[in-house]
């Protein structure tokens, strides 16, 4: 054991430190396909312990890699043999709930689902929600500015975080645990830590904004035969449901049929054979009236020839069945591996042409056996794309990345809608950010982490 590790052990105690072979027994990704390569895993139990650890690491110029639930999809928490992994698994507490001010204060390692469950007892809801809720943590969600299924109504993590406490590279604790909705007292320092993927500070606690739990939620799925119908449906729902519309997710036919119809993992809510499938969710405060209105609005879509078929969930279990199709990322990965996954933003109106162009380019280069699967948070302008060129190779992956990312530039699109940059997208950052923006990012990084010990190599080379 080195002096540094021994000194860290004295701070965090035996429960707070994992070394040797025990490190490589730990998973390094959400599917458990890789194992941890760090030289040690430090599991602080408090902000104060982490602050002391970082003081030592800073003095020794020791690199650290923060890890939450490891559900990130861009290799943002990958650690190498020279790194120490900082795990937040012993900092999972829900510290305080203010039902009047509608806030919850939590530790960074608290899973998103645990936040949902804790605040539900008070008739409140945390609006950010996504498929990995059982494992993904508040700290990971903040560090990646996670989005999810209800961004169209409630925004991303950034819109739902009021305060953040973080430990800087040198161990300084920045306790910016604001609980106020309005606070313009100079710079909003929490923004440094939201979406910066652990490269500017280690999030230890956060104050999250809550909403009263809607008294009714309605979920439906519609089948559509053209992209024009998708656009018309989106406009129709916006007009008729207003701010009650909480989700507008769309699956292209290949995705729906692969997962819902042909995988054997689900009962298809609607038959296959249509070009698009939309999942629509709305919430309100008058369950009976809202359910009737939802049925009327979907009925109008059928009558007006906007949609070819529709189903409305008659129970929570049926609603969950609809969402499971969309959220079955494991099934998708199993069915498409080996493949490259993407998370891009672009104007909604440009999506159909973009996807057609990508399909044509992939088929032209690798043939019709190659897979291009498309789905996403369409209402947010966010598509997830899985491309499996056949035969697969790392060279093919790079070529696919080029085909996916290059057309985004003239569309002013983004190479990352919600997953971040990590290691995976670093080389392509110039598609979405100007040289001046990247230079300013480097200035901020150098100011907050002059020794470059926080999640080195992630986001910026
Ligand atoms: C099935 C599935 C569905 C998903 N759906 C969505 C979705 O709809 N929307 C979406 O946005 N994402 C989605 N994701 C991606 C992922 O869940 C998010 O990126 C999530 O925010 C990662 O949280 P985590 O706790 O797992 O963080 P990790 O994966 O452990 O880490 C993510 C990044 O945050 C850093 N980090 C972690 N904790 C801290 C901390 N306390 N302080 C500083 N840095 C930290 C890590 O170093 C890394 O760079 C999905 C993933 C899966 C597997």
Secondary structure topology:
Layout: H1 3-12, E1 17-19, H2 21-24, E2 40-42, H3 47-59, E3 64-67, E4 84-87, E5 94-98, E6 103-107, H4 112-120, E7 124-125, H5 138-144, H6 151-154, H7 157-160, E8 161-167, E9 173-176, E10 202-209, E11 211-212, E12 216-224, H8 227-241, E13 245-252, H9 253-261, E14 276-284, H10 287-303, E15 309-312, H11 316-327, H12 329-336, E16 340-345, H13 351-366, E17 371-377, E18 382-388, H14 394-405, H15 429-432, H16 435-448
Parallel strand pairs: 2-4, 3-4
Antiparallel strand pairs: 1-2, 5-6, 6-10, 7-11, 8-9, 8-10, 12-14, 12-15, 13-14, 13-17, 16-18, 17-18
Helix pairs in contact: 1-3, 8-10
The chain binds flavin-adenine dinucleotide.
Flavin-adenine dinucleotide is lined by residues 30, 65-73, 76-77, 88, 108, 130-132, 135-137, 139-141, 143-144, 146-148, 197-198, 202-203, 329, 418-419, 422, 455, 458.
What does this protein structure show overall?
It is built from 16 helices and 18 strands. It is an alpha+beta fold and 461 residues long. The protein has four domains: 3-87, Uridine Diphospho-n-acetylenolpyruvylglucosamine Reductase, domain 2 (2-Layer Sandwich), CATH 3.30.43.10; 94-212, Uridine Diphospho-n-acetylenolpyruvylglucosamine Reductase, domain 3, CATH 3.30.465; 216-326, Alpha-Beta Plaits (2-Layer Sandwich), CATH 3.30.70.2190; 337-419, Alpha-Beta Plaits. Strands 15-12-14-13-17-18-16 form a seven-stranded antiparallel beta sheet, with helices on both faces. It has a five-stranded antiparallel beta sheet with strand order 5-6-10-8-9. The protein starts with a helix and ends in a 13-residue tail after the last helix. Residues 30, 65-73, 76-77, 88, 108, 130-132, 135-137, 139-141, 143-144, 146-148, 197-198, 202-203, 329, 418-419, 422, 455, 458 line the site of flavin-adenine dinucleotide (FAD).
